[in-house]
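Illustration 12: Protein farnesyltransferase subunit beta.
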Amino acid sequence: MAVQLEGEATLTSEDQHSTEDAVLALFKHAFLNNAAQDISLQRELHRAWLKKGLVSLPPNFAGLDASRPWFVFWITHALELLGDYDEPHWSYQVAGFIAHCQDPTGGFAGGPQQLPHLAPTYAAVSALVVAGTEAAYKVVDRKAMYGFLMRMKSPDGGFKMHDEGETDMRGCYCAIATASMLHMLSDELLEGVPEYISRCQTWEGGIAGEEGLEAHGGYSYCGLAALCIAGKADALDLHSFLKWAVHKQMSHEGGFQGRANKLVDSCYSFWQGAIFPLLHEAFRQKGGSMPLPDDHCWFSPQPLQMYLLLACQHPNGGLRDKPGKSADFYHTCYALSGMAVSQYDVQGNTSIVGDIHNLLERTDIYYNVLVEKAERRSAYFNSLPPLEIDGRSLQGGEGPGAVAWRKRVLASRRVQEVDASPSSAIGRKGGYAGGDVE
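Figure caption equivalent — predicted structure in C-alpha cell form:
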C-alpha cells in the first residue's frame, strides 16, 4: 500500500521510501543483469545455517533462554519446508529436549525448570508434530495438558498466556491450536472464544491483540486461525476482514506489512499471507453467493516470492526481515512458511517464481506444519481411546475446520497424482520470472 504523504514528510514516510529504494535496487540489479532467469532459493546455504543453529546457539542468545522450544520449532519447520528434515537423526533429540521443558502440572515452558506458558506450549507441540514419530507424540501428558489449558481460560472467553499473565489473541490461538493438534478440543475449551475474538475485530476489519487496540497481522492470523480450526469463522465480519487484508500487500516491495503505515517485513509473508486461504475456506464453509477465486485467494503470490528471493536471502544463510537486517531463525521460518503458502493455490496447483527447485513443501495453514505431518499426527491420535478426565471421557477431538481443509487438500493431491504424467508429475503453472517451467 503506498504511503500517503499529503505534502508532509515524516520519519515514517522517509523510512518507507528508503526501504522501497533498497528493495527496488535489488530488483533492478537482478533484471538489468539478466539474473531474473536465475532467481533461486539458496537451499544449501540455508540448510547449513539452520542445522548449525539446531546443534548450538552462540552466547548472545542467552537472553532468549525462555524461547528454546520456539528455536526448535523455527529451525525444524524451516528444514522440513526445504525438504531436509532428517527425521531419524533429529526426532529423538527433539523429543528428548522438549520432554525436559514439560511441566508436571501441564503445558510446556520456555526451557527446563521454567514456568509453563501457552506460547512455548504451542511451539513445543508443533516441534513434536514436526518430529513426526510416535515417541515424540507420547511426550505430551495430555491429561495434564488439558488441565493447564482449562486453567489458562479467562472468564471473558480468552486465554491467559501463563498463570496471572496477560490475556490476548496469542493465547486464543496457542490454546485452540494445541488442543486441536492433540485431539482434545472440547466445547468447554471453546466456550466464549468466538465472542471474545469477534470483540477484538476492529473497525479496520482485522483483529487486534486485545479489544480496542489496532488491527495487526500476527493477531489477525491468530484470531482467524483459531476460529477456522473450530469451524466458527462466521463469528467475524469476513468481508471487512478481507478488505483490510488485501491492503497489506505492499505495492512496490511485494511483501506484506503487519499494520497500517508500517514497513514491509518478511515474517508477515505467513502471518498475512496465510490469512487469504483461511478466509477462502471460511467463505466456502459458510456458503452463500460470493464467488470464490480458484487461484491465489485475493493476493499476488509472484511479487511476494520476488521480495523473499531477491531482498530477504542473507548471503551468509537464513532469511531476514528486509534489506539491511541480519538473518534470524524466526524470520527464516515465517518467510519460508509464507513462500510455501504462496506457491500453492486452493486446487493444489503451483505458482513458482524462478526455477522449479524453488518449490517448497506444502504447509498446513491452520498449524504451520507440513500437511503430511499434520495428517500423520491425526492418524495417531485418532487411534487412541478417549481421554479420561476426572472420571469422565473427554468429548473432544481435532477442530472440524482444520480436518475439512486437510481432507480437501489431500483429495486434490490424489487426483493430481492419478492425472499426472511423467513429464508433469507436479501440477504447476508457468514461472513468473524464470519463464515456463512446464
